[in-house]
Amino acid sequence: MACNCGRTDRSTIVYRLVLPGGVTREYPTRREADAANKRAGGGGSVTAVRR
Hints:
Layout: E1 13-18, E2 24-27, H1 30-39, E3 45-50
Antiparallel strand pairs: 1-2, 1-3
């Protein structure tokens, strides 16, 4: 029997794009977040977030 040591679920990493107007979107890959940022004018910031 395996022990999960208290963890009940696994976390995943998503990439959050925050645009200058306050709009926030999440993407499964960094590449998708960067492409969306470029389409929006390139003024946003992308950060990795653990969910």
